[in-house]
Design brief:
Blueprint (H helix, E strand, L loop, with lengths): L2 E6 L4 H16 L3 E6 L3 H4 L8 E6 L1 H11 L6 E5 L14 H9 L4 E14 L2 E8 L2 E6 L6 E7 L4 E6 L1 E5 L7 H4 L11 E7 L9 E4 L4 E5 L5 E5 L3 E5 L3 E16 L6 H9 L2
Parallel strand pairs: 1-2, 1-3, 3-4
Antiparallel strand pairs: 5-6, 5-16, 7-10, 7-14, 8-9, 8-13, 10-11, 11-12, 13-16, 14-15
Length: 274
């Protein structure tokens, strides 16, 4: 391995100190290392084509940010958890130098996680394309009113929701907003998308699991703007009759793992303290 990037959280000083120390140790091992805040996307992007791995020091939000940055290049992420839960991280802070040893000596395997592709449409006009590792969420905007949403799966019959919003999640995202909205937790190896209305009004229809090769199209039918967000980090205002088409991307996020391949259930128990 020739080049590793080390990303830290700009609001957690300890992560910056550790990033510098990890970089120095990598250089001693003959590996070129660079370090930036995970929020410095404009500075990071030019370095990605020659970067082979990213070490991310922060919470799940920092890891989500890193995963999107590395998506086009298939760059694996080694996450060190400085957040509250850390579902995506492989290491705890006191294991940061264990992480370094694993990486330098190739003592790890790579896990691939599904990623959503969201295409925003206004009539026939495309407004943009985005990616999400956790979820795509459409919700009410600044006005505290429900939104009306029409959901079409694989161009079949419409399902209408009047709700605070709707979540389309990957299995990775099932432990995030989806579970808080009453949806199921899914093993990340499950090949599905999870559609969950948020606080639906007068509806008995809860979460739905659909195949990961489905196309889910959601249209806003409210008279006032709503918001759409990808992983809770990329957010836009959308208008009535705008729609978003969500599919599973051909791209995948890649994560460094050292635990057994069925680690998810132990991880779930530890993180949620079951």
């Amino acid at each position: 391995m020739q080049t590793i990037g080390v990303l830290h959280h700009p609001k957690i000083p300890r992560t910056q100190e550790m990033a510098l120390e990890l970089s120095a140790r990598l250089e001693k091992e003959g590996v070129h290392a660079w370090t930036y805040s995970a929020w410095d996307e404009d500075l990071i992007k030019p370095l990605l084509p020659t970067t082979e791995l990213l070490i991310t020091l922060g919470g799940d939000g920092s890891i989500l940010r890193s995963a999107r940055l590395g998506l086009d290049y298939g760059i694996p992420i080694a996450g060190v958890n400085f957040g509250r839960i850390g579902f995506l991280a492989e290491y705890q802070p006191d294991q940061a130098f264990t992480c370094l040893n694993d990486l330098v000596h190739g003592q790890y395997w790579i896990e691939e996680r599904a990623v959503l592709h969201a295409e925003l449409l206004r009539g026939a006009q495309g407004l943009g394309e985005y990616f999400a590792l956790n979820d795509v969420v459409i919700g009410r905007g600044t006005v505290a009113r429900v939104v009306r949403l029409r959901v079409v799966i694989d161009r079949m019959e419409s399902i209408r929701h009047t709700a605070d919003g709707i979540i389309v999640a990957t299995p990775t995202g099932s432990t995030a907003y989806t579970v808080a909205a009453g949806g199921p937790i899914a093993d990340p190896r499950v090949r599905a998308m999870i559609i969950t209305p948020i606080a639906p009004h007068l509806s008995l229809l809860g979460s739905m699991l659909v195949p990961d090769n489905s196309a889910v199209e959601i249209t806003i039918e409210s008279d006032y703007p709503a918001l759409i967000s990808m992983d809770g980090q990329v957010e836009f205002s959308i208008m009535s009759n705008d729609s978003v088409r969500v599919t599973t991307s051909d791209k995948v996020s890649r994560f460094v793992r050292t635990r057994p391949k069925n680690y998810f259930y132990a991880n779930l128990s530890q993180r949620l303290r079951l």
